[in-house]
Amino acid sequence: MRFLMVSTASREIPPPDVAAGMGQATLAWIDAYAGKIEQAWAFAGGLGAGGIVNVESLEELDEILSSWPAQPWADYHLYPLIDVRESMERYVKAQEALAAAPSSSAQSS
Question: How high is the pLDDT of residue 108?
Fold first, then answer.
């Protein structure tokens, strides 16, 4: 299962003694999960980051996110990802079925 994670800094900032090591701790975290974090990036000139995480279960996702050093000071959103072609094929089939169905106004006559 692949998820897009997009995070922004919350209003609360980490204490100075924690903030000082946050960059190195985050790089170590990315390295520790290199097989699971497919991409990691930061917003240019801003306080925010994101990436794509590929996991086998929601429990594995929770493990990765719970160990993220910035997690207590970040607001983040997760979006499940699927293949766009498969999604569009399902959409087309659903629209075709809808178009082929008798209209509700014809049934009420």
Answer: 55
